[in-house]
Amino acid sequence: MSIWKVIFGLLVFIVINISLIAQTQYNYIAVKNDHGKWGYINEKFQVVVPFEYEKALDFEMNLGWVYKDSAFHCINKDNDVVFSCNYKEVFPFKEGFARIYSGKKYGFIDRTGKLIVQPIYDYAEDFSEGLACVKKGGYYGYIDYQGALVIECEYIKASGFSNGYAVVEERNFIDKKGKIVFETSSFTNVRPFSEGLAAVSITWPNIFGYIDTTGKLAIAYKYEEAGDFSEGLAKVRFSNSLKWGYIDKSGKQIIKSGFNYTSGFNEGMAMVSLVIKNNDKEISKFGFINTKGKLVIPVKLDFASDFKNGIAHVFINDKEFLINKSGKCVYYCP
Q1: 160 and 230 share a domain?
Q2: Range(s) of the domain holding residue 273
Q3: Model pLDDT, residue 208
Q4: Is the pLDDT assigned to residue 86 strictly greater than 80?
């Protein structure tokens, strides 16, 4: 890959992200009415797109996908159709491009509907930091915004790029030229970077610590399981415990170990679960904590999604509700 392609790709990435920051963001959420038709609500829970679609996906980058009359349509905030297409499946826009699935293969289109990457890949992930992980012939590699294969498909396992690096084969970090970085021969397992840190292990069974983006050990090896950092915290589990807690970037435990399951933080909230006995059976119930570890929404939900735009999807007795961060039902309410 030439240096000019790298520079061009970086410039496109910067231009796209600057233009997105300058735009007003319309984070509409797809919802369904009692008649099975889909529309959208805004962050004030007001209906902003009428219920007229058979399917709908949440807005990303000010565009939403809807399905009607046997075709997918990309709509804007005013419910105007930007373009239509007949792919088997479509995905939300990321970094200006959307994955499409056609003829059992994946490709990419831009925000005008133009096919940028032909559907030739067995699998593809969204673009991340200017590159997308793709799979062909049983192996993973990476393409740029123009669809050029900049890192050959030669890996059995691979992650998307974050903080300038991707994880391949679960034990090596590569840069955007495909070069292995750091001294990785001693790693037995590595996780992708998040907020400047990555969980790594040098033993088997795995005991994880965290390195920074220079490869220097930042948090000592002492965790049997270690998650990504989000909003300054990472979930961890010590080898002598079955419960999860959270640490900060210095390795200080901020939220004590006490949960059977935890998620990363989104919008100041993390989903947690406890195993509860019910009629001699053990079942998992879910709730939410804030970044101080306070249980904001009680552990009584059958399941829940992460918060997005101030709303989480939750389930109780097989019925779906949308709740806000105080736990109040805002849609699908009884």
Answers
A1: no
A2: 260-334
A3: 97
A4: yes
